[in-house]
Structures are given as structure tokens and as C-alpha cells.
Amino acid sequence: MNGNEFSSLDRQATGLIDPQNWMVILDGRLVLATLVLTGLATLAFIVRWATGKSVPGRIGQGLMGLAALTSLGQLVDRYVYMVRIDPHYWPLSNLFESVMFVVFAILALHLVIDRVYKAPGFGLVSAGLVTIIISLASLLPPRLRDASPLVPSLQSYWIKIHVTLMLISYAAFALSFVAATLYLFFHYRNAFAQPRSIGAMAAQQPNNHSALMDLLDELTYRLIMLGFPILAFGIITGGLWANHAWGTYWSWDPKETWALITWLVYAAYLHARMSRDWQGAKAAWFAVAGFVSVLITYLGVNYLATGLHTYGKLL
Amino acid sequence: MADGPATPTADEATLLDRDQLAEIRGPEAWVRFRNGFVTFWASIKLAVVLICAIAAASTLGTIVPQGGPEDVLALEEMSLRTREFLISIQAYNVYYSAWYLTLLGLFFLNLAVCTWVRVWPRLRFALARPRDLPIPARDHMPDQLRFADTTANQVAETLRRRGYRVFPAKEGFVADRNRLFRFAAMVVHLGLFMILIGGITAGLTGYKHSFPLLPGESMPARKAFEDARTRGRLTPLPDDFRVRLDKFWTTRYPDGSVKQFYSTLSIVEDDKPVLSRTIKVNEPLEYKGTTYYQSFYGIGAEILTVARGIESRVVLANQASSTKLQGFITQRFTLGKQQVFGYNPGKGDHFEILTFPMLGYVGDAKPGRPLQTNGHSVAVRRVLSRPGVASVRLVIGGKSRTVPVESASRFKMQGYITRQLEFGSRKVFLFVPGPDQPIQIVDLDSIASLGTLAPGAHKAFGGVDVRFAGTDDDPAGGGPVATELVIDGEAQVLRMIELEKTGFRVEGAASDPVEIGGRNVVLMQASEPPGSPLWIMDAREGTALAVMRPGERTDIGITKVRWDGPVWFSGLQTKTDPGLPVIYAGFLIVILGTMMGLFNHEQLWITAQEQGCRVGAKVNRGRFTFRRHLERLFTGQGGELLPQSPNNQGAAA
To answer: Which residue of B has its CA nearest to A216?
Structure first.
């Protein structure tokens, strides 16, 4: 499509960013701070898991909250610095920036969810996931990490709406994946443990266990119910933007096709759940499949790397 | 879409409603057929299967490049058989292929029937006065609370304060909240239908065209309409006006990368400009339902030709890729010492036999009319054609073989060249297509082959005796790295570079074939290096007729040609799309519907007891959070949430 010509223009932004500027230095420090905080939170949750005490859990939550602040700070810092160079700038314009935003969205959403659901293990898996994501993102080459001004097709207020919505939906789906993984973990641990100690398990906490499973099942479901409209909104604003920029709201570009596939997978999940056969572990596996589709949309398509969305190209 | 199984029994019942069926006159078989049809097509399981099928089918188009069969043929990592299979299922155009559209059609049929049978009971339910609705048996109330002291009135008051609608009912109250949100799925389905209708409308009544314009040039709306790549059958002819490019410019960041590009356009009606506006990417211009988008740009050329006193302009402003050959080519084969291939322009069954890589014309061959040349014959036996793929059976020097035909757009000059040399007054370079091939001596100015030399052979070029000693191949298998020549008795070793790594590439812009001076020519300008000369190539022979620098003049036949140098052109895209408002409305409704899914329909039945009261509750999804909500709502009033009984977990969604 015509977008290729814009996106393949070589962006040599090196001359635009002053590495000595305090805001640029702060940017790096805040990324590091977020990584350290989430790493420490993971440790705190491991201690909580091992000891069964609630204090380390609360410390973990606090660290996650601080990490949400530092990651938000990093985005704001980058925005304030770059907007002077390019008034259209929005700090979600390359892979690294988008990852940092997803990290922020996961952390913020996690804090809200944990207040309501208090699902055991949720903090640990979320914190671990976020730590891994930031570590991987830090390994990206500078070309994908450093801020650079926007190519012509991205210079639109639509970037602020479309990209932000897409990434928030990814964050919701990432957390639904965390919940589904936990569900499957408990499900299979339970399934394997049962033959050995049927009596003990049954006597111990049958109700509690089923309440835990219901909680995780519902958490997965509600997070998908949250991500689903946001993804729809994101895809549609992408269509509006494309129509505004190129006169085509849908062009079957790999990225938009994969976003649609993701939406369809989750739509299938929501429909399948209506049948009683498809609740519990099957539904959890379905949610995992949905997240695989999210990953392909978000990262995988960039490996294929043709089409309109080549901005976050990995290679 | 996002609805729980709150009233599955009620919904299923409507499918088998005897009264409804009795209304239909006719043989019972018809009734049974109709009933079976509805039951099958209204099934949610079918919906899940179809959604998954569409999702799976959609992945195909993200793996196989979308375009034409030639793009599939270019996937060399796949076997020819796989590629032929992919072509036979139209994998190069999945989203418009008959089977994909059928799948979509089935999905929308399913969606329609499914929505239709469910929307009416649900509407009846939503519009009914709550006190008229039957109170379910206690066993059907999934969650229950017992109040020891609080009266039904007090509970009702709490609910009212919290925004529930509360109605008096037999022995107590009925309360609910978010009733309309049950329609979330229906609303999404409606939105999807509107998008479908809008899409069909666009396909039938819209058109889309993209074209380049040089400053000063204009494009009549009706010409764009006629040339349009996509145009619906019912598209109305646009009004008679023209769009003129007055000015095109780009702005750049300090580092030189393009920041934005702009075109100042004028709408000209009856030779009078009626509107003038500057557009850029993300800022189109709309006039009388036609929208003009800034889409691309590039360097073009314009030559002025004067023949018999008539001046005309030939414009080169296409974004051509590596070649202008369109159609199909065979794999290369040797004819005597010459590497050749067959070229078919995409129609007919004749093949032009062209030399490789210089595209020299050897002759035509078609079934029944073999080509005889230098004691060799090339006969086309049979063209095995399929959509876009063919193989051709050739008889070369008495031996017959089948040569698969591939798309010409794959054709690129490949091989290795040396730096430029001087043979007498001629500037030449050497070209080798690959290891163990004879070397070609190529005239630098005309890009025409002066002749070939096999290892050990020698020939005179422009009075210079040249002997070709051989090439040194890259031990790693990368092709020749050096070639040894003996020029007038003096040995020279010349380094060879892969053609693709040099500026020499026929990549850049090329015009469509035009006639100048009685010859069919193509104008070409390499995009790299900047300021490359303009080539006027004989379209058939592939040889240069003229190489021009800016400001130069030349003669082709009796025609005088002048070139003033490169100019920027602006690429515009124009379209009309009457379906757009419907699609946008559909978009809005889908967003609205999916968001409605975030709210749950909560129902409560409050029954007064001799002492205190009992509350039965039900939510259409999110039972866990609902129970927690109930607990929080009523713990202050001494409400005791009864444990979930294993018998009535039905509504846990």
C-alpha cells in the first residue's frame, strides 16, 4: 500500500536527540527504576508465596504502584522532551515506547483488579511478566528504543486515540492471560494431586478451592470483556484514521487483519462460554489462544513486516 | 455476543414454539424443514465454528503476499506444487476469493438467524412490566440471601437507593438493574450488519483511483472514474470537473528525513478554478462527494517532443519497480551458447524468445510455428495454463522439455559486473550472470551487449584484442569475485561486484510504452544515484536509443526530443464511497454494543417471611463479583449470603 513509501523512509533521528540533556538521561533512569521496582515486587511476591505472610504481599503491591508511577513518568518525560521537536509527537511511536506503555497499563490495571479480586498468585505472575517484558524491551537496538519524530502518515491526532486504545486492550488481554494461566496451574495441580490424596483434598478445602477457580475463571472472563470493546474501539479508530489518511478504512494489511483475528478469537471465546461444555479449563485454554493471537498482532506481524504498520519493525 | 446463558431455556423454547409453527400452513415436512433450518442456523455452536473458520482463513492472507498469482510464484522457499495449490485457491487474493466470501456469507446468515430468534423473546422480556413476569422457582435463583430481622420493605428501600428499579410483587418485591444491557450482543450484531451493508454499498457504488500529477497538470474527475482500478457496477458518473496540481513540496526534519508533503490543489469547473486548497497526508480535500488524498510522491520526468511541428508531452511518473516486463517468463535455457528465456506478455500463446540478461529479441515461437535460429529450433508444444500459472513445452535442438513459466515481475537483472573499462573509444563493462558462464561485454552507453566470450576465447572489440582467461569464484559459493582478461596482451584482473550492490539497476521509474519517432519506447530513469540520466529505451529490443542529461536535446527518427530535468510529482488518491456513513454508523454501534457488555443485568426477588425476608438473585454474567457485591450491599442489614448450592450453579458465567 501507499503507506510503505512513508514508513520506509529512513529515519535517522540521531541528530535530533541530545544524549546529554537531563530529560534524556532521566528517561533511561526511569526505565531502569521501573525494571528494578517490578523485579523487587516479584521477589516480594515470591516471599509471600513461600511464607504465606501477607506483609510481603502488601510490599509487593506498593512496589507495583511505584513502578506504575515511574513508567508513567518515563512516558511523560519522553513526551515533554519530544513534543518540542515534533508537535505531533506521542510517546507510543516505536516498539519500545509502546512496550513501556503496555507495562504502565498492566501495572495500573493490576492495582485496580487486585483491590476487587485479591486473586492469589496474580501479583506474582503479573510482576514476573512485567519484569520479563521490560528486560526484553531493554535489549532492543537503539534504533527501536530511542525517540524519533513521526513520519508523515503518523502525524495525526488519531495516533493518540488508536494506538493508545490498542495498547490498553493488549494490557487487559495480558492480564486475562495471567488469570487463565493461574487457572490452568491450579486446575492441573489439583487434577494431578487428587489421585494421591483424594481424602485430604476433599476434607481440606473443597469450597475454597472451587471459589478460587470460579474467581480466576471470572477474572479471565471479565478482563476479556474489558479488552474486547477497547480492541473494537482501537480497530475502528484505526479504520477511521486510515480512511482519513489514505482513503481506505480497511486494506487487509497484516497487522489490521491480525487485530481482527484477535477480536474474532475473543468473540469466539465469549460465544463458546455460553455453552456449559466450554467453561473452566477449556475456556482458559481459549483465553490463552486469544493472547497468542494478541502477541502475533503486536509483535509477530512485525517480523513479517510488510504493510502499513511497519513502524515497530524488529529487523 | 457477550451474553450469558441466563434464559437459555426460554430462548430454546421459542425455536420450537408450537403456536408459531401452527400458524404456518403447509405440509408437516416443510414445518420440520423450517424448524430444522432455524435450529441449525441459530446455533451458537455454529457461530463459534464459523468465527474460528474465518479467523483461521484470515491468517492465510497475512502469510501469502496479497496481489497476484505472480507474487505467490515468487515464494521460492515453497515447492512449485504448493505454490500451484495456493494459486488454485486464490491465496493471493484471499479476502475477495469466492470461498472466503462464502464463509462470510454463512457467518452473516448465522448471525441474522441467531439474532432474529433471540431478539424477540428478549424484547418481550425487556418491555414487559416486571410484575407481570413470572417469579422463578427458588431453585432457579442461583444466589440467595436470608435476612433474620430486616423486612422486605427495608431491603427494597436499600435497593432503590442504590439505583435499582424496584416493583411491588406478590409477597414482596422484584428489583432489577441494567436490563437494557442484555441487548449488548444484539447491538454488536446490528453494528456488524451495518458494516456489511456499508461495505456492499461501497463495492457497488464507489470508485477508487490513484494517479500521479506533475505541477500544472490536471486530472478530470471523469477520467479518474474511467481509469479507476476499482469501480462499482452502480457507481454514478461524477460531475464534470478537474483537479489541478498547482504546487507540490515537502518539508524535512533537520536530519533530512521527510516530515510532511503537501499539494496545493485547485478544483477547476468550466475552466474556472472554483476552489483551492493545500492537502497533506492526513488532510484530504473533499469536493462534491469525491475525496482527494495525498498518497505518495516521487521524481518524474517530462519530455517535450516535436514532430512535424506538433508539440506533445510524454510524462514519466510511474512508480515502476525493477522491470516493466509484464506477463510471464520461462525459466532460462541455453540456445547454442546464448542464455535465453521465453516471454509471454500475459495474453495469447506466443512466446518471445529473449536473450538473457540483455533482453535481445531472438524471435517468436508459438504452437505450430517454431522458431528457427542458427540451426536451433524452439517449438512451443503446448501452453498449460491455469489462472496465472503456466508451463510451456519447448523443443530445443530436437530435445523436448517442459519449462515452468513464472511471472515476469520476478525478472530482475542478476549477476556480477566489473568496473568500467575502455576498449578503444568505447566505454564498456563486463557482466557474468553466474559462475561458469561466458562473459558479456556490455556497452556502457547503450547497455547493449557487444558480444560474449567463453573462457579461453578471444575477440576484437573496437580494434582491441580481448581474451577472457576465466573467473575466480568465491569459495563460499557467492559467485564470481574476479575475472581475468588479457587486453592487447596485457593481463588484467578485475574485481566483480554483485549487480544488486551497485547503482546499476533498472530500478526507478519507467513510463508505459509510448510511440516516439515511429518507435515504441519506454522512458526510464534509475532512482539511484540521484540525477541519473533519462534513458529512452526501445521497448522491444531493450536497447537504449538515447541517454539524456537535463537540458539536452536529441532526435529519434524525425522527432526532436528535449528533456529539462527531473520534476517532483505528487501522487493523489481519489475516491467516492457512498457507503461510508452506514459503515461509520455500524462502527459506532459495534463500539456501543461491546461497551454495553461491561454492565450486567442483575435481578432480585424479595420475598417477605414471617420474620425477616429472603432474597433470590441472579446475574447474567460475573457471578463471583455479583456475590461479593451482594455481600457488601447487605451485610450492614444482617443479610446472610447462603453458600452456593451445587445444584444451581447454572448461571455462573
So the answer is: B624
Helix/strand/coil (H/E/C) assignment for every residue in B477-545: CCCEEEEEEEECCEEEEEECEEHHHCCCCCCEEECCCEEECCEEEEEEEECCCCCCCEEEEECCCCCEE
- Cα separation, B617 vs B597, in Å, equals 19
Q: What are B64-88's pLDDT values in tens digits? A: 888 777 677 767 777 778 888 888 8
**How many contiguous H segments (helices) and E segments (strands) does chain B have?**
12, 42
Chain B window 278-297: which residues touch A at a Cβ cutoff of 8 Å?
280-282, 284, 291, 293, 295-297
Apex A253 CA angle, A248 and A256, nearest 5? 90
Q: Which residue of B has its CA nearest to A236?
A: B587
- The pLDDT tens digits for B563-577 are 776 667 788 889 999
Count Cα atoms within 13 angstroms, Cβ side, for B297: 25
Cβ neighbours for A266, distance < 8 A, ≥ 6 positions apart: A173, A224, A227, A228, A231, A290
Which residues 306-325 of chain B have a CB within 8 Å of chain A? none
Distances (CA, A) of A15 to A11, A20, A142, A147, A311: 11, 12, 14, 11, 19
Q: What span, in angstroms and rounded, lies between the C-alpha atoms of B197 and B589?
A: 14
Q: Residues of A numbered 250-289 whose beta carbons fall under 8 angstroms of chain B's beta carbons: which are they?
A: 252, 254, 257-258, 260-261, 264-265, 267-268, 270-276, 279
Helices B44-63 and A254-272, packing angle to 10 deg: 160
Q: What is the DSSP letter of B369?
A: B
**d(Cα B124, Cα B133) in Å, to the nearest integer?**
10
**Whole-prediction pTM:** 0.73
| Residues of chain A contacting residue B3, judged by C-beta atoms under 8 Å apart | 274
N- to C-terminal Cα distance for chain A?
20
User: For the stretch B132-147, what's the b/e string if a residue is b when 16 or more beta carbons lie within 10 angstroms of its beta carbon?
Assistant: eeebeeeeebbbbbeb
Residue A230: which of A163, A157, A165, A174 has the closest Cα? A165
For A313, phi and psi rounded to 5 degrees?
-55, 135
Interface predicted TM-score (ipTM): 0.87
Q: Does B206 touch chain A (CB under 8 A)?
A: no
First to last CA, chain B: 13
CA nearest to B2 within chain A: A270
B624 touching A (Cβ < 8 Å): yes
Interhelix angle for A22-51 vs A95-117, to 10°?
A: 40
Confidence of residue B347 (pLDDT cuts 50, 70, 90): low
Q: Are B488 and B499 in contact (CB under 8 A)?
A: no
> Which candidate, B242, B399, B213, B226, places its Cα nearest to that of B313?
B213
Q: What are the two backbone dihedrals, phi and then psi, of residue B358, each rounded to the nearest 5 degrees?
A: -90, 5
Residue B211 in contact with residue B571, Cβ under 8 Å?
A: yes
Q: What is the pLDDT of residues B131-179, one digit of tens each?
A: 777 788 877 788 889 888 888 899 999 999 999 999 988 788 999 999 8
Which residues are CB-neighbours of A252 under 8 A, at least 6 positions away? B61, B66, B95
At residue B644, the 3 state secondary structure works out as coil
Residue-wise pLDDT tens digits, B520-540 = 777 766 554 455 667 777 766
Chain B residues inside the 8 Å CB shell of A301: 62
Assess contact for B589 and B196: CB atoms under 8 A. Answer: no
Are B3 and A116 inside 8 Å of each other by CB? no
Of A5, A117, A258, the CB nearest to B296: A5
Distance from CA of B197 to the nearest CA of A (A): 15
